[in-house]
Amino acid sequence: MLTSEQIFDKCVEIYKILNNNKEAEAKEELLYLLDEIQDKALYPPILNHLIRQFGLYPYMNQDTSILEDRFLLECFKTDIGEDEPKVLHREQSRVLKRLLSNESLILSAPTSFGKSFIIDALIAMKKPNNILIIVPTISLLDEARRRLVKKFYNYDIITTTQQTDLKNNNIFIFSPERAVEYFSFINKENIRLDFFIVDEFYKISKDYEKERFAPLQNAILKYMGISDQRYYICPNIDKIKNENSILCKGMKFECLDFNTVFIHINKCYKNKDFKKEEKILEIVKKDEKTLVYTQSQSNIKKVCEILVENTIIENSNALLENFAKWLSKYYGEHYLNDTLKIGVGIHHGRLHRCLSQLQVRLFEGKDLLKTIVSTSSLIEGVNIPAKNLILWDKRNGTKNINHFTYKNIIGRSGRMFKYFIGEVYLFESPNEDDNQEKILDVEIKSESLSINDEINNEIPDNIQTEVKNNQREIIKLIGRDKFDLLKKETLLKNDLEVIIKIIQILQSEDFNSEIFTYLFNDEPDTWYILSKIASIGEFHCKNIGDINTVELVKKLSQNWTKPLPKLIKDMGIDLDDFFKFENHVAFKIASLFSDINTLQKILYPEKAIDISSFVTKLSNAFLPSVVYTLEEFGLPRIVSKKLHKCGFIDFENKDLTIEQVLDNFKENTADNIINKLKEKNLYDDFEDYILNYFYEGLGQ
Q1: What does pTM read for this prediction?
Q2: Sign of the alpha-carbon torsion through 384, 293, 580, 355
Q3: pLDDT (tens digit, 9 = 90+) per residue, 419-433?
Q4: What residues are paired with 63 via a beta bridge?
């Protein structure tokens, strides 16, 4: 521990560096000093004053500051919806001032900037009626919901498209896809947005796959016209290309290179004796919070196997042991059961959402999970603090990570108030050039517009031409009159090629719309339409072996009635493949049948059979819709099954809404629920942790 004299001497050294116009070097030294001291109570007045010079006001200790510095801190305190106002740093305050003056901004700032503080302050100070926040992942959606529900009790926080019982004050938090789907409802209700916020705005770039940029561009095009003010947030951009694009119309770009932590880059791959397996064990054994980025689920498993094989358990943790036993009982055997016992978790986009959320919470706990091995689902999606970040792979899936993804990944190390210094360990070269100007291309693409979208005249001529050419392809198949009807329907979810294939199937000579009636049958063997649709490549889930997709869908229909380990065994796949396939059904196959339902009603209005109930089953992976939604709120289907069995809630009631279920839970407590489960001998250890976490997310 540093003495008072040593702290004073170090402050003098930093002042000298600062006076030589080496601000970046001085700031780095300051952050190393704060990291070494740790205890804020030990800050002398000279250190507080030094922190002030860098605009890092939240780091100052008001109790040990001189009068002038105390007064400054009072000036920078802001209401962010908590019991007491919080101090913003200099650049946060400047951005907030511009937003309070009704400017629409695109803000580029480092990951550690504290951008969510500004959102919270906007809501607390301006008290808007309706706010939409678009986030890139379900993980980040849940994080934002949990943060805001604790602060803004007078708002309804809407995160699913099922929630349509709106009140006067609403905060909508959606992924881009959900925002697009919900737009028709918001438009019909004549709701106007006071604020429209887009987090991780850089995902609008065509540098990303169509599945990423297209829905975000489409959502922005829809909502910008009904929004009074917009605020788009992204990290590490120097300039915007096509700044006059319709996607940025009326907005000003602000680039702030203001770091609140220092990230130390360790280029391990440059060491000729470097071995991944040895280095990761060395880092993990430091007993510090560590995130490991990998490119795929298979690499997550590989890394976890290395850690399990080389870790000796000295002191087992009862909570993690109970979690592992619970998973083994209700999910079957999986490598996660072993990794949890050594304090290691996993995170990927196909993992059941409640399992992802529980592990994030355990990671945030002081003595629980120490390491999480993840794909980009966590690294790009959740503001989770870690001391160490390991870049195990330089790829994201099959492609090299781009600049934006790389910066976002390394930005997960270090965090305001947690770790002044973040350690990044590069196990592979990201081919990152720090001197190259980072330009975000916001050019609008034709893939971002649905076939039946209205074409705005402000959209560039070349994009209008592409979309109109696509529309002509559909008109050739169904005629102008039917296409005009199609434009009045809700948006189609698939691209031109898939839509043409669907139309060709529906128009084929051997097709009879009566085939849809069998979908109302509880016998999956009579769902003959599945075999017809199997000719569309998008129907099939890739990389799960040679198993027939049609048969897997039929077996998945027992998702609610059959125990998960038995269901997986019957399907002939492992748990990882089950996660992958269930996700594929809920999104890809459900979107196919949604478009089939829309198109068959247009093509054959007199004999059309509405199969929207089957589309709903698919989109909920054949679970009751409320059960599937509750997983997103942190309640596993296993617990919902038990609550159904003990009579707490009848989840098979088709009229049941998510609002009714949440109200039912709020009328009880976690302890009440646990007692109900114990009375019926349905309780397992670890479920008290699950239920308390779930109730935290309700603001209880």
Answers
A1: 0.93
A2: negative
A3: 899 999 999 998 776
A4: none
